[in-house]
Design goal:
Order of helices and strands: HEHEHEHEEHEHHEEEHHHH
Shape: elongated
Strand content: 15-25%
CATH architecture of the largest domain: 3-Layer(aba) Sandwich
Strand order of the largest sheet: 4-3-2-5-6-9-7
CATH class of the largest domain: Alpha Beta
Distance between the termini: 59 Å
Structural class: alpha/beta
Largest sheet: 7 strands, mixed
Number of helices: 11
CATH topology of the largest domain: Rossmann fold
Radius of gyration: 21 Å
Number of strands: 9
Bound molecules: S-adenosylmethionine
Length: 279
């Protein structure tokens, strides 16, 4: 493959700026620019869109996103040591990279972005699930983003795309698949990262559907699903008893056997159950 850009290789960037990986910040860097370009391509055609990237680190994925033609990339990075490396990338792509220093859980990046917006990130493992849940549960739907292209630990990726009747199926699968099309698009071994994490990773691509697959109030659905999976080994008539004294009738009306466990219930039936609590 021809060179991605005229910037130095990432190993050199890391050495120049003293970016030794910090475990507390979930730092497992991708140093192969062919790989970061490939992840950027999974996000789709970015040429007329803004991209939000959380945790750019030394900027491997950032460079992939810019090289693949993203109109603008906004990155949020907590580790100030990465800022000089990111400033070099910004200089190589004038007017197309904006860097915000801070905690992605606290900063609202939306004021800096113009739709259409895609999100792409090799997420720090300690905040990955929390960010995903926030992106999946906005006040309004469709959300601010068109797609999310996110690296997770393989086990988390499998929970996002899990089907009913499997061990991995749970709240994350319901939240994700109710209103998005979610697929695992790449698998990466630990050796793809520096330093290598203990577990394999995978990239999940989620496309926001224009409307939920089945009607339901998001807050009610969220509460019902959380209660059901909090006690996933229990039969639903027991796990959901606290929600209502007539839970068995509600379950039956939603087409769910009261003796079923949460992991057997398809999303459509959870939506029907949530609707029984509306009004
Ligand atoms: N994107 C880079 C790559 O692929 O090589 C780095 C990925 S590394 C797994 C996670 C990055 O997220 C690190 O650069 C880390 O400093 C940053 N990070 C950790 N916690 C963060 C937070 N709360 N807000 C923003 N960035 C954070």
């Amino acid at each position: 493959m021809s060179r991605l850009d005229d910037l130095p290789p990432l190993r050199e960037v890391i050495a120049t700026h003293g970016l030794s990986a910090k475990k507390a910040l979930g730092q497992n860097f991708l140093l192969d620019l062919n790989l970061t370009a490939k992840i950027a391509r999974q996000a789709g055609d970015l040429t007329a869109t803004d991209v939000l990237e959380i945790g750019p680190g030394p900027g491997g994925l950032t460079r992939g996103l810019l090289a693949s033609g993203a109109r603008r990339v906004l990155v949020v990075e907590k580790d100030a040591r990465c800022l000089p490396a990111l400033a070099e990338i910004a200089a190589a792509y004038p007017g197309r990279l904006q860097v915000l220093e801070g905690d992605a859980l606290e900063i609202d990046p939306l004021v800096h972005l113009t739709p259409p917006i895609h999100v792409a990130a090799n997420l720090p493992y300690n905040i990955g699930t929390e960010l995903l849940v926030r992106w999946l549960t906005p006040a309004e739907w469709p959300p601010f983003w068109r797609s999310l292209t996110l690296m997770f630990q393989r086990e988390v990726a499998e929970r996002i795309v899990a089907r009913p009747g499997t061990k991995a199926y749970g709240r994350l699968a319901v939240l994700a698949q109710w209103r998005t099309e979610a697929r695992i698009v790449m698998s990466l071994p630990p050796e793809a990262f520096t330093p290598p994490p203990k577990v394999a990773s995978a990239v999940v691509h989620l496309t926001a559907l224009p409307a939920p697959r089945w009607p339901a109030d998001p807050d009610i659905l969220s509460r019902v699903v959380a209660a059901a999976f909090n006690q996933r080994r229990k039969m639903l008539r027991a796990a959901l008893k606290k929600l209502s004294p007539d839970i068995e009738d509600r379950l039956r009306t939603a087409g769910i056997r009261p003796t079923d466990r949460a992991e057997q219930v398809p999303i459509e039936a959870f939506c029907a159950l949530a609707r029984s609590f509306e009004g």
